Amino acid sequence: MVSATDIAGSVAEQLADVEQANAEAVRAAADLVLGVIRADALVYTAGAGHSLAAVAETFYRAGGLACVYPLYHPDLLPLHGAVPSTQTERRSGLAAEVLSERAPGPDDVLVVFSTSGVNPYPVELCIEARKRGAAVIAVTSRACVAAAPKRSSSTLVEQGTVVLDSLVVPGDASYPPDAPRTAPLSTVVNAFLWNLVLAQVYDRGTAEGLDVPLWRSSNVEGGDEANAALLAKYGEIVPRLR
C-alpha cells in the first residue's frame, strides 16, 4: 500500500527536477514579464480543459500579478460539459474568436498552459499572438508534445518564445511509477513553474525599483484597501475583474 510519504517524496522529486531543468527558461520568462510591467502592459494567460486550473492560478489571486488578462471561453471548461470541452479545444478558429475581444500586442506577453501542446486552440492562440508581435511563454511538456497526435499545423513547443517544461510523462498520471494510471501532476507543476516566475519577477523587479502590481488577500487586514487601487487601474481593461 502506497503511503502519503511515498507520494509526497515523488512529487517533491518531480518539482526539484522541474526547477533544475527550467532554470534558464524561468529566468527568460521572468525577463518577459518584467518587460510587461515596465511597459505598463498585460500578461495574457490561457489554457483549456484542466489547464484552466493554471489560468485561474494566475488571475485575481492573492500574491498574484494584477496585470493579468485571462483568455477564456465557457465551452473550454469541463464543468460546462466534459466531452464538449475536449471537442472545443480541438476546434480550429476558436482562438481568433476569443482574441476578438482583446488581443495581446507587442508590449504584452501571452502565457499558454497546455500539457499536450498540440490542439488547435492553444497552438492558434500562440500563432495569432506572435503575428501581433507578442512574445509567448509556453508551459507544456516536451515529452507529451512529442507523443501526442498532431492536430494542428504546429505545436506549443514550436511556437513558444520561451518554453517551460513540466517534465510530465505522456498521459499525465504519475502512479504507480512503473505503469502510471493515476495521481496526475500537471496542475501541481504548472502552479509551481508560475510561482518560480513570480518569485523572480518580484525579487528582480523590486531590486530595480519597479512597483510590481500584486494582489493582496481580501481576508487579511488592509487587503481590500490595497486591492482597490489595482481594481481601479485594471478594471477597465480587464473585463473579468468587474
Automatic annotation (TrEMBL):
Top-level lineage group: Bacteria
CDD domains tied to this protein: SIS_RpiR
Domain SIS: 33-207
PROSITE patterns xrefs: SIS (PS51464)
Gene3D superfamilies cross-referenced by the UniProt entry: Glucose-6-phosphate isomerase like protein, domain 1
NCBIfam families, A to Z: PRK02947.1 (NF002805)
Protein's UniProt name: SIS domain-containing protein
Organism per entry: Amycolatopsis bullii
Lineage, highest ranks first: Bacteria, Bacillati, Actinomycetota, Actinomycetes, Pseudonocardiales
